[in-house]
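Work Package 4 report. The design task specified in the project plan requires that, given a folded chain encoded as structure tokens, an amino acid be chosen for each position. We show below one input record used in the internal validation round.
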């Protein structure tokens, strides 16, 4: 059924020059929206529902100069049924965008203006995102209404809603339908299309690998007797499979649809590999293939399949290490395979296994680089040290990590002296300094960390000056700002830290605008929003902190959904939920805070169950129990708070027992006993509360005896002595009867609040080792 319109374009999309990448994305998303067949032709205030939202006209202004729209653009604007405005601080100051809005309103079509907030905050003097013509129309007394008499803005904000929901909200405003229907019908049609598309991807992968049965016959004839050709064919097929999978993930194909595709591709490629003889070359290729598929299965969230491939690859590589000991080229390939396998294991959070794999690769690299004159091999050695150091740091082994990074620094300095103009060698030197700074920061040696970060930053700036268009160098400069900001927070310099984070944000936002699908840059952007949010929260500016946290949460959610097997990105999502929960708690929205804490808890529990030996995740789980207990205590749900504090105590006890010399772990345990005592007393369990307080005091007394000059421990000891004395006195006064839970007691601490302040804004230190 054809649906006709008096307008040439369904939508005119207006955005600033700086936001053009987002304009391209939204245009593609709207043009791809799958209108369900039974919706087509339905009468709405905007006219009959069309089969497609095409054609869409996007302002094609490519010049950075902010010029008013020309006659051709004005004609296209007049011929458009709706005006979608991408709002941001850039758009707020754009004459071109404002003129488009002004003309649309002047023509009496204010009800067809649809704002979408990319960044910024309406009404914020520093981060205003609405062009002037739209601000007037959106004030509380003169709201901008659509054709149904509802707010035309559709409350579409990218930071809160994410790309998919923003698309659905714009479609809702354009078609004048209900959001729930547009969203549910759009997803249903999209799922069917993805299923068909995934089948097409499978066909492409398999065709590229073999070309079906005909390809298998060709392979038998052409490759069976040619080891070099077969090796090259398998390498190209595996590489193509990885690239196709990455591209499919970027465009949103669900992991569940890609899994059978990947399994079939592996089966076909493996079948080709069997055509060759059992030679070291082809067994090395088989090991590489297993490592690659371990990585790919991990990316799709299949730890079982990934683990099986990793074990098989490791077994094969151990055999090859001895067989090819005299072949430098084979050994170099083997070292690269160990690194690839380590990356697959690291993505799953299996850091001990990743460390073993990296060490095996490093051992080979050390043998190959034993002659300093073989300069090119020194680069591989330096990078091998960095990978091993990363795995050690992930496991909380900071002293060994520092020693390993210093090994990388020695090699990188040698390379830098040999050829100062070689950019990649300079970048390796930059990485070594940055990694050393990270460990020094985690060890509390902030001044030394900043010195390392400054050296790293100077190298990054030199690289960028030599090639300003190189994204790698731009990102390196941004990361150097971010790392410096982290250290400055620990130094108690929030103002300088904020400036560093703001500088990082500008660079990273520009990179994301160049390629919104780059997951690494998206992660960087989420991190910098989180860091700025923490500083704003510590400053007490909760209104400004909230949008920063919500952007971080939206980015983390998209990355975690697209990469379910990446444990680090899953943890990032949990942390983002925790920050939003803290903010809602501070604002008094306790129910909302609890929802985010529960989302955080679910993620942490999955990770902790995946690898019970991972100290960091166990530490996170204990912290989650403590946070939830504090929140439940403020709600008066003391029974539930008690269960949370008991969970925290169990984990804290394991840390304290595993590392008796770790004073931080010992004090955390004492604090847990104190929290437990407070809740038990509220529940009328004064005897147990007194026992808990005595255990806490015993721990603090031991710490104080070992370091009598600690003001913190002295204050802790005084606090516990006071609480014990008050509880003992109260017990005698009531002749052994417990105080009613509703009665305030001197032994009960004041109502808790979420952790905040400058210390909360500091990057987390390494957890104690189990």
């Amino acid at each position: 059924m054809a649906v006709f319109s008096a307008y040439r374009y369904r939508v005119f999309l207006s955005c600033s020059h700086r936001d053009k990448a987002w304009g391209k994305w939204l245009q593609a998303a709207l043009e791809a929206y799958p209108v369900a067949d039974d919706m087509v032709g339905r009468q709405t205030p905007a006219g009959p529902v069309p089969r497609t939202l095409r054609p869409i006209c996007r302002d094609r202004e490519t010049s950075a100069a902010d010029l008013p729209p020309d006659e051709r653009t004005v004609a296209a604007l007049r011929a458009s049924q709706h005006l979608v405005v991408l709002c941001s601080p850039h758009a707020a100051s754009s004459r071109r965008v404002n003129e488009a809005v002004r003309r649309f309103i002047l023509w009496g079509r204010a009800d067809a203006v649809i704002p979408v907030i990319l960044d910024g905050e309406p009404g914020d003097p520093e981060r205003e995102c609405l062009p002037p013509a739209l601000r007037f129309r959106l004030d509380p007394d003169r709201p901008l209404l659509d054709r149904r008499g509802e707010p035309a803005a559709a409350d579409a904000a990218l930071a809160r809603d994410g790309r998919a929901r923003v698309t659905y909200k714009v479609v809702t405003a354009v078609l004048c339908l209900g959001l729930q229907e547009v969203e549910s019908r759009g997803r249903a049609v999209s799922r069917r299309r993805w299923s068909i598309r995934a089948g097409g991807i499978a066909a492409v992968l398999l065709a590229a690998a073999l070309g079906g049965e005909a390809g298998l016959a060709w392979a038998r004839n052409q490759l069976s007797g040619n080891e070099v050709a077969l090796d090259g064919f398998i390498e190209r097929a595996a590489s193509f499979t990885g690239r196709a999978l990455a591209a499919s993930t970027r465009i949103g194909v669900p992991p569940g649809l890609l899994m059978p595709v990947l399994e079939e591709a592996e089966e076909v490629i493996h079948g080709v590999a069997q055509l060759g003889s059992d030679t070291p070359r082809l067994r090395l290729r088989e090991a590489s293939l297993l490592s690659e598929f371990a990585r790919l299965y991990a990316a799709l969230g299949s730890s079982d399949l990934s683990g099986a491939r990793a074990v098989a690859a490791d077994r094969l590589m151990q055999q090859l290490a001895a067989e090819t000991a005299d072949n430098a080229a084979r050994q170099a390939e083997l070292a690269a395979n160990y690194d690839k396998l380590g990356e697959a294991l690291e993505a799953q959070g299996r850091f001990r296994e990743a460390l073993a794999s990296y060490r095996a690769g490093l051992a080979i690299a050390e043998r190959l680089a034993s002659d300093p004159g073989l300069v090119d091999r020194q680069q591989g050695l330096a990078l091998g040290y960095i990978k091993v150091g990363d795995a050690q740091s992930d496991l909380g082994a900071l002293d060994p990590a520092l020693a390993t990074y210093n090994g990388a620094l020695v090699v990188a300095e040698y390379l830098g002296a040999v050829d100062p103009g070689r950019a990649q060698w300079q970048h390796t030197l930059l990485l070594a300094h940055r990694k050393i700074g990270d460990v020094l920061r985690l060890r509390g040696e902030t001044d030394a960390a900043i010195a390392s970060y400054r050296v790293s930053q100077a190298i990054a700036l030199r690289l960028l000056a030599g090639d300003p268009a190189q994204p790698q160098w731009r990102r390196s400069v941004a990361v150097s700002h971010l790392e410096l900001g982290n250290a400055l927070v620990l130094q108690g310099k929030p103002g300088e830290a904020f400036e560093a984070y703001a500088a990082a944000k500008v660079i990273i936002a520009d990179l994301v605008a160049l390629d919104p699908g780059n997951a690494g840059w998206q992660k960087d952007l989420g991190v910098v929003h989180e860091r700025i949010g923490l500083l704003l929260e510590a400053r007490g500016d909760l209104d400004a902190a909230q949008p920063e946290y919500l952007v971080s949460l939206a980015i983390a959610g998209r990355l975690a959904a697209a990469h379910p097997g990446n444990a680090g990105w899953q943890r990032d999502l949990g942390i983002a939920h925790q920050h939003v929960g803290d903010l809602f708690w501070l604002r008094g929205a306790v129910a909302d805070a609890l929802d985010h804490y529960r989302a955080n808890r679910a993620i942490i529990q999955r990770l902790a169950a995946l690898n019970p030996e991972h100290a960091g995740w166990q530490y996170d789980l204990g912290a989650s129990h403590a946070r939830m207990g504090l929140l439940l205590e403020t709600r008066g749900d003391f029974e539930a708070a008690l269960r949370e504090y008991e969970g925290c105590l169990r984990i804290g006890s394991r840390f304290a027992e595993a590392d008796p010399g770790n004073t931080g772990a010992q004090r955390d345990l004492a604090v847990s006993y104190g929290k437990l005592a407070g809740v038990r007393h509220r529940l009328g369990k004064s005897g147990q509360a007194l026992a808990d307080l005595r255990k806490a005091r015993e721990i603090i007394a031991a710490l104080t005896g070992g370091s009598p000059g600690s003001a913190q421990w002295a204050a802790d000891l005084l606090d516990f002595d006071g609480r014990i004395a008050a509880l003992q006195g109260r017990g005698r006064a009531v002749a052994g009867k417990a105080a009613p839970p509703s009665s305030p007691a001197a032994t009960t601490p004041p109502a808790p609040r979420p952790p905040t302040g400058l210390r909360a804004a500091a990057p987390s230190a390494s957890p104690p080792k189990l």
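The mean pLDDT is 79. Validation will be extended to a larger panel in the next phase.
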